[in-house]
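Fill in residues.
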């Protein structure tokens, strides 16, 4: 019998042929316990025993576990069989059938949709004769609940709602002293220079869409300008982060404690766009124009060349140019070179752009990815913010230079990013025709610039939404998915939360200025072209584009 003790005795009655006496020998042994094996685990057509990812498990599961021998009913408990989600046990019901060889698992409460679960069977489960079970565990993902989480409204109403909710990040959550934009939802006094440029552009949208009055917008702009006029500057350039109360540098890293030329570019793009929105015949607004011009005209762009034909990203009063980061393309910093070429007082020569940013033409790519041609940049194009940050004001629709048609570049980059997500070579959960977009954002481990070559399973709503100017149909489908289908997980006080990774069961509760800004601005450019029209009306920008031989 299995799992039984035996005593094997060699008696002392045993004698040798010669009459020799044998001393009694006793050998104690226990037979090996029999085992019981799981031979089938299914929920409908879903097989839990296969090696591939288990997904689309019904929200009201009915999992049948079939064993090769009858189960001891007393061992079937919520302790021996568990379904776990983020450390929380699901309340389970058990039914035995098939002569106690099959356990049917159900639950009175639905699973959370699009969530990661663990089915765990402990070794305390046993057969009816004490047969041992060696444990089993399997990760699975629940199906998506396609029921709309909010009332269906027209696309125009939905876009307005997204803009209005996102605007709150830049209005309600702005730093109370400076009016500047906080870096992220928990930044307290850390404000971001580039993100504040996005915030300034968002003010225009807020006025035009009726979220605030023009007077309110002008007052906020004045507060921001007062802060910038008194904040730390280095050769006219602001740092990446500032203390929103004092205006002092908040170091981004050890040696990044001074000027950040790219972040300053994003700020100036916003300021010049607002300048063009102002009415010079109104004294209050004309004063704001003069204040913006004073800031813009005192930025020493050419200082950041170090007398070379390239711009450098950083300068520190302690470490000078030790960060040693030349700004070379193709990336988010095209606007930096456009502004530097447009400066009347501290402008750069065309060679700085052509040899620096464009790397003498080596900026060009010319390969196909996912069967889509990519004119510029790295393989697959990089994170999608490359198509957003420089082009919040800089209009790509007719923008060409010696190296690319920028509308083709940005549209194809977006389509490649989407096509990669559809191909989903790493088999992440919820990458689909309606759920795509890789860009810089928070993730389950911190923060990263996500892209096809740095794919961590993180979808960032800003990526697809802000690309609506390039891929309107595809982006609207993504918006519907994020809002109506995933809105119970993604929609919050300031619009869409930053990102999510369904594979890791991680959903952000955070907001980042650099992701919220492009959403409200690019939706407006899609709807009206307003920010593009304003920025491109700057005479200095037109002069700079002409200097660099752009067609626009």
């Amino acid at each position: 019998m299995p799992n039984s003790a035996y005593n094997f005795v060699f008696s002392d009655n045993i004698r040798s042929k010669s009459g020799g006496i044998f001393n009694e020998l006793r050998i104690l042994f226990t037979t090996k316990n029999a085992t019981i094996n799981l031979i089938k685990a299914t929920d409908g057509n879903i097989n839990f025993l296969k090696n591939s990812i288990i997904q689309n498990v019904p929200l009201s599961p009915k999992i049948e576990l079939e064993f090769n021998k009858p189960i001891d009913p007393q061992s079937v408990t919520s302790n021996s069989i568990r379904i776990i989600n983020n450390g929380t046990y699901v309340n389970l019901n058990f039914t035995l059938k098939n002569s106690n060889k099959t356990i049917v698992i159900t639950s009175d409460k639905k699973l959370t949709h699009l969530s990661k679960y663990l089915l765990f069977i402990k070794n305390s489960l046993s057969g009816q004769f004490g047969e041992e079970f060696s444990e089993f565990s399997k990760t699975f993902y629940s199906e998506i609940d396609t029921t709309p989480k909010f009332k269906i409204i027209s696309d125009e109403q939905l876009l307005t709602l997204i803009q209005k909710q996102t605007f709150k990040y830049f209005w309600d959550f702005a730093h109370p002293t400076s009016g500047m934009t906080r870096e992220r939802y928990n930044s307290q006094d850390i404000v971001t220079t580039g993100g504040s440029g996005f915030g300034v552009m968002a003010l225009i949208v807020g006025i035009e869409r009726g979220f605030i009055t023009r007077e309110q917008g002008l007052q906020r702009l004045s507060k921001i300008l007062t802060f910038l006029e008194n904040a730390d500057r280095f050769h006219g350039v602001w740092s990446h982060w500032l203390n929103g109360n004092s205006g002092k540098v908040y170091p981004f890293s050890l040696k990044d404690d001074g000027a950040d030329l790219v972040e300053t570019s994003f700020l100036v793009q916003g300021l010049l766009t607002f300048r063009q929105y102002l009415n010079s015949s109104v004294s209050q607004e004309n004063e704001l124009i003069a204040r913006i011009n004073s800031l813009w005209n005192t930025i020493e762009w050419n200082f950041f060349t170090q007398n070379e034909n390239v711009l450098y990203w950083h300068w520190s009063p302690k470490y000078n140019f030790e960060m040693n980061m030349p700004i070379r393309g193709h990336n988010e910093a095209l606007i930096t070179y456009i502004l530097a070429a447009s400066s009347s007082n501290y402008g750069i020569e065309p060679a700085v752009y052509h040899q620096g940013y464009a790397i003498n033409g080596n900026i060009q790519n010319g390969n196909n990815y996912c069967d889509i041609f990519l004119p510029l940049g790295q393989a697959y194009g990089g994170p999608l913010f490359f198509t957003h940050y420089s082009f919040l004001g800089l209009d790509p629709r007719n923008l060409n230079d010696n190296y690319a048609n920028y509308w083709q570049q940005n549209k194809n980059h977006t389509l490649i990013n989407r096509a990669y997500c559809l191909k989903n070579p790493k088999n992440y959960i919820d990458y689909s025709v309606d759920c795509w977009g890789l860009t810089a954002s928070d993730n389950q481990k911190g923060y990263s610039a996500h892209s096809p070559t740095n794919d961590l399973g993180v979808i960032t709503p800003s990526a697809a939404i802000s690309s609506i100017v390039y891929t309107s149909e595809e982006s609207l489908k993504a918006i519907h998915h994020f809002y109506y289908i995933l809105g119970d997980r993604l929609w919050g006080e300031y619009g869409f939360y930053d990102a999510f990774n369904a594979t890791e069961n991680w959903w952000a509760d955070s907001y980042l200025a650099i992701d919220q800004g492009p959403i409200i601005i690019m939706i407006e450019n899609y709807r009206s072209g307003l920010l593009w029209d304003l920025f491109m009306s700057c005479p200095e920008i037109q002069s700079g584009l002409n200097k660099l031989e752009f067609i626009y």
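The chain has a mean pLDDT of 96.
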